[in-house]
Amino acid sequence: MRKNMSQNWKAVIFYILIPVLLIGSIFLLSYQNKNTVTTNYSEIVNLFRNDKVESFELDLSTGELNYKLRDDDKTVNKYSVPSVSYFIDDISEYVDRYNDSHQDTQITYNYKKGSSNSWWMSMLPTFIFTVIIILMFVWLMRRMSSSIGNETNRTLGFGKIKSKNSSGEESDKKFEDVAGCDEEKAELAELVDFLKNGEKYTELGARIPKGVLLVGPPGTGKTLLAKAVAGEAGVPFLSISGSDFVEMYVGVGASRVRDLFEQAKKKSPCIVFIDEIDAVGRHRGTGMGGGNDEREQTLNQLLVEMDGFGSNTGVIVIAATNRPDVLDPALLRPGRFDRQITVNRPDAQGREDILKVHSKNKPLAPDVDLHEIAKLTIGFTGADLENLMNEAALLAVRNGRKAIVLQDVMDASSRVELGTEKKSHKFSDKAKKLTAFHEAGHAVSAYYTEGHDPVKEISIIPRGLGAGGYTWYTPQEENYNSRKEMLDNLVSMFGGRVAEALALDDISTGASNDLQRATEIVRDMVIKYGMSDSIGPVVYDSGNGEVFLGKDYGHVNNYSEETSARIDAEVEKIMRQAYDKTVEILKEHYDKLELVANALLKKEKINGEEFESLMKFGTLPISEETSSTDDAPAEIEAVEEAQSEVIETAQATQTENTENTEE
């Protein structure tokens, strides 16, 4: 620390000294040249010839001439004559002539003896510049030598692994800090017991798994589990990412693997955690043009260290990945990664426990029920739930509240899932009407589809990328995506397209994403899940395409052209059946479609309770704020009248459409 401060002070002094010397030398030069007349020698002689010089002083050593003119008796002009003797000879005649004719105002002769240090003063600026150049050269040479030394050290240290070492006492992560994965913690607890009491396992000849592979979607807590194991066992924790092994220099990755396990042996018993191991452990010999030799050498060294000639007693390797399908089979065999633990998304109870962990230091209002929030956040990972509570806290601060209320959590949920509302974007009335009927079509068709997830919120305020509005559903608890549920989802997906065609007699590009997702679902039903009646329970998609190539480029069909034509026909058939069912639903309940669309045009956003009220009673629920005012009856009556007009308009339009259809 002191050495660094000393070096910093030296650098500061050096950077200050150079400008000071430069400014000083410039000042000396300007001082020496002050009032120096930049004229020719003949002009100086002419001044004496024309009797314009009042007095002068001549330095006999340097030839410096200081003179005053008669018109300006204050300014002392300077000039360096080329030769003192020649100058005296040239001006003596004119000076004597003037003095003879002007006895009262004679020119004063004044000769100054040459000074011994005048040459030193004249050479001082040159000397200063020379010193500055020498200092800069020395400084640059030191910097270059220092850079070369650092580069040499880095080159020699390429084979050294840069791991983060932390002892068990320093780690504050325990199993109690990891919520929502009780089964996973139970399996890892065996590792903790082995690290603490390994003798009882070795007495019976048992061998603890050399490696444990944590597999699961991003954000499910794989890294946190590994830290918790080290914290519970109180052993050193060597953490590194798979990408840290890979360098542009050949052999560096293998050297780092050896160095990592050498460190682990010295700290045994300990845990080595390799995050994102798929960066270095991918399947060998795949991809266009062959594999990466450096990556394969690194993987080979890792395979040898985990179960090769050496003995790594007391060293447990924990790795994490969300792409187990791309890992090399030799890495997954028993003796290397003996055990695979799948860390899934948490269920309702797990989500509630995670919410409790992430809300410990956050003040919650009485209306915030974590149990209910857990039910509404199906599919959220631990990272998603942590982000949800953080966003809710930010919204509470933004709204000037001292505690997080339920509305903050709901708004945060919509921000996390759908993005931020873009209320500043203005659309034409035609575009708003099209969006309103599109979203109303999704909601109404879902409402009249048995078993479909209930509507949570409908909005024509754009969010995210390119979406003019959205229909948000509340998913049911951990459903299994049965064939009926998939077909029901198709009906609601087609709702927007069908509603546009019925209400506006036109269709837009707004349904492109709905059609794309619907086509993917139907194709998976036919070729991946065997849910087609005509094709049968046969899987035509093995899912073994090359992971290192483009998704479509590396995929090879394992069926004939005739089968491909049958698959296309079946996909089209299922899509048309779902579309026809959507048309039937929306034609039958066209009054509800118009009712919801008109409500969206007025309010821009309605929640699930308001949607249920519209579908069941044809009216929006009356808010408590409206009923508590003095003129509440008048307002209620006005609302009811407006809603009655909407219903009558919808019924009239429905009747007119029916008559046109019959004609």
Question: How would you describe this protein?
Answer:
This protein has helices spanning 2-32, 41-49, 84-101, 118-156, 182-196, 199-203, 222-233, 252-266, 293-307, 329-332, 348-358, 370-376, 382-398, 406-418, 429-447, 483-504, 512-527, 561-588, 590-603, 608-617, 624-627, 632-662; strands spanning 53-59, 64-69, 77-80, 111-112, 164-166, 211-215, 237-241, 270-275, 315-321, 339-342, 455-459, 470-473, 605-607. By secondary structure, the chain is an alpha/beta fold. The strands form three sheets. The protein has a six-stranded mixed β-sheet with strand order 5-7-8-9-6-10. A four-stranded mixed β-sheet has the order 3-2-1-4, covered by helices on one side. The radius of gyration is 44 Å and the shape is elongated. Residues 165-170, 546-551, 624-640 and 657-663 have low confidence and may be disordered. The chain folds into five domains: 2-118, Signal recognition particle alu RNA binding heterodimer, srp9/1 (2-Layer Sandwich); 164-342, P-loop containing nucleotide triphosphate hydrolases (Rossmann fold), CATH 3.40.50; 348-418, Helicase, Ruva Protein, domain 3; 429-619, Peptidase M41 (Methane Monooxygenase Hydroxylase, Chain G, domain 1, Up-down Bundle); 622-663. The longest helix has 39 residues, at 118-156. 54% of the residues lie in helices and 9% in strands. β1 and β2 form a beta hairpin. It is built from 22 helices and 13 strands.
